[in-house]
Write a structure and sequence with these properties.
InterPro entries: Homeodomain-like_sf (IPR009057), HTH-type_TetR-like_transc_reg (IPR050109), HTH_TetR (IPR001647), Tet_transcr_reg_TetR-rel_C_sf (IPR036271), TetR_SbtR-like_C (IPR049445)
Distance between the termini: 39 Å
GO molecular function, one term: transcription cis-regulatory region binding
Order of helices and strands: HEEHHHHHHHH
Keywords: DNA-binding, Transcription, Transcription regulation
Number of helices: 9
Protein name: TetR family transcriptional regulator
Helix content: 55-70%
CATH class of the largest domain: Mainly Alpha
Organism: Paractinoplanes ferrugineus
Strand content: under 5%
Largest sheet: 2 strands, antiparallel
Strand order of the largest sheet: 1-2
Shape: elongated
CATH superfamily of the largest domain: Tetracycline Repressor, domain 2
Number of strands: 2
Length: about 230
Amino acid sequence: MGVSFQQWNVAPFHCTRNVAPFFVTRGTGPWHNRAVVTTEPGSPAPKRRADVARNERALLDAAAEVFATSGVGATVREVAAAAGVGMGTLYRHFPTRADLMVAVYRHQIDACAQAGPTLLAAAPTPFAALLDWIHLFVDFLGTKHGLAKVWQGDDAGYTALHQLFLDRLVPVLADLLEAARRSGEVVADIRAYELIRAVGDLVAWTVRDPNYDVRRIVTLLVTGLRQPQPTRPA
């Protein structure tokens, strides 16, 4: 039985009102370049850093869940409510909607990359780990397609993120494929990059047909790797 990206990536949390000290920024320029200080005297710096890190993780997990259930058109107010923080906290971490989307995308790339070795160690067979990881990847691609909509006019930025996606995830898939080959479960002559592209092309059809069962089609594709394929032309 496969797992979803939402199950893998979004940890359970309780929505509570944000009671952290009031933070202000020091300096000028882009928000991410400003120093964050607190107006509460005597507050230990390590505790402030822990609060900031905890709020950011809660926002990223909440955004991943909200975008997965409501689509990329969900409001940032929904994300803040799901994370249990105020709008001020959200905007201190992510000044624009695009900033939030990009951070979620990077967050999910990291989760996908980390899932590969974990699944390989826990699954009953390397092929089961491969299929579970592909299903996680399918869920992740929904956010990737949505990201393109909020990055209109910044082709260079989107291209850089796409390259990060390839640099991190292709090697993970290559390791899973190699493990399945060593166990004799995968015999098809296919490279990791080719498989990622093939899965991506299949997922792209979901925006055109709401009744399209992409997991079923992708499962058929991956299951076909158990069979030898025609010899590549010279």
